[in-house]
Amino acid sequence: MAFNRIFWLMQLTWMLSLCCSAFTSEDYSNALGKSILFFEGQRSGKLPSSQRLTWRGDSALSDGTSYHVDLVGGYYDAGDNVKFGLPMAFTTTMLSWSVIEFGSLMRGEVQNARAAIRWSTDYLLKAATATPNTLYVQVGDPNMDHRCWERPEDMDTPRNVYKVSTQNPGSDVAAETAAALAAASIVFKDSEPSYSSKLLQTAMKVFDFADRYRGSYSDSLGSVVCPFYCSYSGYHDELLWGASWLHKASQNSAYLAYIQSNGHTLGADDDDFSFSWDDKRVGTKILLSKNFLDTKVEEFQVYKVHSDNYICSLIPRSSGFQAQYTTGGLLYKGSASNLQYVTSTALLLLTYAKYLSSNGGNIQCGTSTFRKEDLISIAKKQVDYILGDNPQKMSYMVGFGNRYPTHVHHRGSSLPSVHAHPDRVACNDGFQYLNSASPNPNILVGAILGGPDNRDSFSDDRNNYQQSEPATYINAPLVGALAFFSSAATQT
């Protein structure tokens, strides 16, 4: 209760900064609902009667059958029709973290957020338990898939199944899957305790598999995971990340001992300034910093130090500042899907602000001291930019605001719905829709796209996938950030 009072006081202290906000609490709440609704557009498998994006239909109902496993369900990662395990698991971890930290602020949307998580965890459970010492990590040949432009409901490209095993390890994808299942177990602990227990027990087994049979899945499956989702950062970061989530979920001292014994060799000593589906180091530091803030256990001080260094890198007035921002104020990390870094950074900023709030802490950057309100202000600038407070005056969330992209690089959205056009659209026939100047016939509500370039310019062009393609891992961290601001704004 004391923490909740502090947390709400934290929000009240910066209400003056909200008085001139470009968006109201209703705007943030609206965006929150849409950001979760987006995941229904990415669903694979048999759609439920509660499906709200009704232009979608059932798809990939035979996934895994030829391999004698059930791999129906899960999410398509972006605008294609492949189910990639590494980004799907990371998406699940981020959605779960959003609910863990800010679910109490989501009001009526928390049930939809849990449903979005469960759509993935049901699939990940099947992928992790179908065969002993095996994790199924991908369905669909991306090279063949990318040669077609067809609806998932029509696709006839090979639905090859790929796995990691004791002989062909994939510690990165396995440890991320363990993190996803462990984080989700926290989400369902009160509402569905038996399901939560199943998630946690499976997470423990998958992590043990990841740790015992070490290797990168890029080495085992390079021809089909690269260059799409190569594990460029290696697997050490995922092992520490997975152990951290298992400790948080289970409170089992064995994971604490694992972190203390292996942290230095798995990246605890490294400063890092990017957080994504590939590199988990910064996220792990933020997550573990709470252990030091709460307990002052000396072994965890290093995580607080590195977390501070990361935050300092984002603050323009800081001696440690090294981030790049556009003229319009957008954090800029790369030309392809830059908004994935923006949304993940926003979640980390707000989560760290929350952790600091519960312990009365500040950030020390050289001789300068920064408060949690400074972190919130940076996160708010990024979220507002995405929603339309930017030089283009364009919302980069599809379906939000008066002006948003209409030529989204997304097969199902750009082709006529199976309900409007029941006849099959063949592989090559779909390219007429990719290259069409007409807006997408189906609105992928809530999708956050790759976003503008380093000059705040955006080309609303389906073929410009670096800017116009959505992805589940872009949306997932934003869910938590929008929940925070939808509630914070109501305190004014």
Automatic annotation (TrEMBL):
Residues 1-24 form the signal peptide. Gene3D superfamilies: 1.50.10.10. Its EC number is 3.2.1.4. The keyword Signal applies. Pfam families: Glyco_hydro_9. Keywords: Carbohydrate metabolism, Cellulose degradation, Glycosidase, Hydrolase, Polysaccharide degradation, Signal. Residues 28-482 form the Glycoside hydrolase family domain. The keyword Transcription does not apply. This is Endoglucanase. GO terms for molecular function: cellulase activity. It catalyses: Endohydrolysis of (1->4)-beta-D-glucosidic linkages in cellulose, lichenin and cereal beta-D-glucans. Transmembrane segments: none annotated. It comes from the Eukaryota. It is an enzyme of class 3 (hydrolase). One of its GO terms (biological process) is cellulose catabolic process. InterPro entries: 6-hairpin_glycosidase_sf, 6hp_glycosidase-like_sf, Glyco_hydro_9, Glyco_hydro_9_Asp/Glu_AS, Glyco_hydro_9_His_AS.
